[in-house]
Amino acid sequence: MKTRRVTGPGFRPHYAYVAAAVAFLLMIAGAGIRSAPTMFIAPLEHEFGWTPATISAAIGVNIVLFGLVGPFAAALMERFGLRRTLISALALMGLATGLSAFMTQPWQLMLTWGLAVGLGTGSFGVVLGATIVNRWFETNRGTVMGLLTASSATGQLIFLPFFGLLITRVGWRAEVLVIAAICLALIPIGALLLREYPADVGVPPFGGTSVVPVPRPSGNPFTTTLAALRDGLHRRDFWLLAGSFFVCGASTNGLIGTHLVPACGDHGIPEVQAAGLLAAMGVFDLVGTTASGWLSDRLDSRILLFAYYGLRGLSLMFLPSAFGIAAVGLPVFAVFYGLDWIATVPPTLKLATTAFGRNRAPVMFGWIAAGHQLGAGITAYVAGVIRTVTLSYDAAFISSGVLCIIAATIVLFVGRGRATGTQPTPAAA
Q1: Is residue 174 included in any domain, yes or no?
Q2: Residue 331 belongs to a domain
Q3: Residue 4: what pLDDT?
Q4: In this structure, is residue 107 part of a structural domain?
């Protein structure tokens, strides 16, 4: 492919910064909206008499779809563009969350927050970050991916305490209407500021020296996505990365992100205070995940993942004891766990890019991230069942910790013994 050299006097901020900033904002909103149902588990239980298992089932569907939509969203972004895909998702989320203010039956919760919001937020997950990084950055990809990934923690930091105050003072319906308004307000921002490729504004990728022409989209995005999955299923690295990411989701979004607030309620800790605990974890995760991106540009990603999963497992096994000394134990848990919340994403993306090639990495990473959300969705439901049956979350916390120790072991085998015949598959047309 021919490229043309870019020269010019003076310094101008690279438009990659704008693309990354818009992606960061959209991912913040997506994370805040996706995690919002954890704040109205108790209000729905009190108003309608729905069990935690019933409500958790809808949250589980939300989380699973959030992951399963990812690889298809990545393919849609390649075929139809970032802006069209993201604006459509925002419109769907705004409509669904607004309608949920009028729900009175569990199936309506499943339809709005389970199905529609799950489909919409799937476009704002890690596949958006992976797409932006691979299109707009030639260097420092790990660091930028760390910052974008940390947006999910920042979303909780910004939104959950605010949602807690809304629920406490006005009610859960006010929360969902505010969320609908946020979705609609983000549509013009994405439409006006987001650009598809560096060539659209006449610049090379950040760190590059020449403008690469915009690739011509072709092919059926669904066929391309399923073909990538078919190829991945024949690769050991895919199974190792997807399996470890399954555990990552089971120990973060599905467990702590969904059930920490009601678990705190079981120990007499108010919702607003519990949301503040999640927000504190978000602060530390912003630091930890950004640092993880920087480290993944410099160190062996397998060693980083071994440390992250191992430390997370230990912190989860400590959590039941932390409730017994809440004044000290929960802040310690928030710091220890928060630094490690989603620090796994940058090194996992780097290993996926090495295994499958830069062009195919967003779609393949989307399928790996689907494993993350599958684990999160299953755990969100199972933990709710455990709470319903045993009246405690302790068994869920401890078993998730054990899974993390297993994941810490299997990531050490990623990329080992890669032979010539298992080089990354070229990107599909």
Answers
A1: yes
A2: yes
A3: 43
A4: yes
| Cβ neighbours of residue 30 closer than 8 Å, sequence gap 6 or more | 121, 123, 124, 125, 128, 152, 155
Is position 57 within any domain? yes
Main-chain dihedrals φ then ψ at residue 210, nearest 5 degrees: -145, 150
Whichever domain contains 335, its CATH number is 1.20.1250.20
Average confidence (pLDDT) over 174-189: 91
Distance, in Å, from the CA atom of 403 to the CA atom of 399, rounded to the nearest integer, reads 6
* Separation of alpha carbons 23 and 13, rounded Å: 17
Token representation of residue 242: 């997807």
Map 116-175 to HEC letters: HHHHHHHHHCHHHHHHHHHHHECCCHHHHHHHHHCHHHHHHHHHHHHHHHHHHHCCHHHH
Over residues 341-387, the pLDDT tens digits come to 778 888 998 898 888 877 677 778 888 888 887 888 788 889 988 98
Q: Which residues pair with 211 in a beta bridge?
A: 4
Residue type, 401: G
Residue 112: both structure tokens together: 């709005």
Nearest to 349 by CA among 304, 410, 405: 304
Tens digits of residue pLDDT in 205-220:
887 777 767 766 666 7
**3 state SS for 363-399:** HHHHHHHHHHHHHHHHHHHHHHHHHHHHCCCHHHHHH
Contact present, 262 and 387 (Cβ < 8 Å): yes
User: Strands, E, within 156-279: which ranges?
Assistant: 210-211
pLDDT tens-digit map of 18-76: 888 898 888 888 888 887 887 777 888 888 888 877 888 888 788 778 778 888 887 88
Interior angle at CA 245, CA 240 and CA 249, nearest 5: 155
Q: What's the domain range around 248?
A: 14-200+217-417
Domains in the chain, number = 1
Kindly tell me if the per-residue pLDDT of 263 is higher than 60.
yes
Burial class (CB in 10 A: 0-12, 13-18, 19+), 359: middle
